[in-house]
Amino acid sequence: MENAQAKALWAEICAEAQAIQAREPMLTELLHHAILDCRDLADGLARLIAARLANAVLGREPLYQMCISAYREDDIIEAVCADFRAVCARDPASAQLTIPFLYLKGAHALEAWRVAHFLYTRGRVDVARYLQSVISDVFAVDIHPAARIGKGIMFDHATGIVIGETAVVGDNVSILQDVTPGGTGKENGDRHPKVGSGVMIGAGAKVLGNIQIGEGAKIGAGSVVLHAVMPHTTVAGIPARVVGKPREAEPALAMDQELDNANLQDWCTLGCGIICKKDV
């Protein structure tokens, strides 16, 4: 039986596609290939991702079969639906579902990673790693297929996002461009951050090591986080330190970049925009 969430989302996408076709006939071929000629959300997304990733080594048809196998799984298609809803709810530039579905590489990279993760967890490690490489080349987003990522995720702009092998990202997290939840470079085993639900990580932030980022935390742009962050806490700077508390329980949903309620008298902003301790 078709997933109810996917069915509802797909109906909205199809209605939007028909309206776009009426306005812009030159996009007819794209709209039919990715949406209007497709059976459902899984079919449309599998076609789209396969077309984006196909190359001389791995063609469109085998890629499509990998993608459709993943997107037919209820937990994966539910995560896909939550991801697309998240983008439309949090990104003022994405007023319609067709925008992330057709055009945004952050959404495409994330949903392509879900295929690589699906394959990795089913023992197809080599092809999953190959997909990781292709996704990195095509979208400039590098996520290890063994990482664990929840649903309702938004990669805003996405370029330069790197997520390590043992990283965990909870539900309803927003990650902006050039963010790295990575390792310190000198550890083995479980060596990457564990990011709780509702967290917002600002552009350019680096979160390094096997540290816990508590739910509802906010990490300021350009920060370097080397130590655990308590839930519902705002951190900023190099190295990051506590500067306040978010107004919202889940900062990821509000996408407010201000360091709200922050006690900033001991901090200064450098010419590059990085926030640092005054006495550093």
Task: Provide a concise account of the structure shown.
By secondary structure, the chain is an alpha/beta fold. It is built from nine helices and 17 strands.
Description:
It catalyses: L-serine + acetyl-CoA = O-acetyl-L-serine + CoA. Pathway: Amino-acid biosynthesis; L-cysteine biosynthesis; L-cysteine from L-serine: step 1/2. Keywords: Acyltransferase, Amino-acid biosynthesis, Cysteine biosynthesis, Repeat, Transferase. The chain has 280 residues and is an alpha/beta fold. It has 9 helices and 17 strands. It has helices at residues 4-23, 28-36, 41-53, 60-71, 74-90, 98-102, 105-121, 125-139, 251-254, and strands spanning 142-143, 148-149, 154-156, 162-163, 168-169, 174-176, 180-182, 194-195, 200-201, 206-208, 212-213, 218-219, 224-225, 234-236, 241-244, 267-269, 275-277. β16 (267-269) and β17 (275-277) form a beta hairpin. The chain is globular and about 50 Å long. The relative contact order is 0.08.
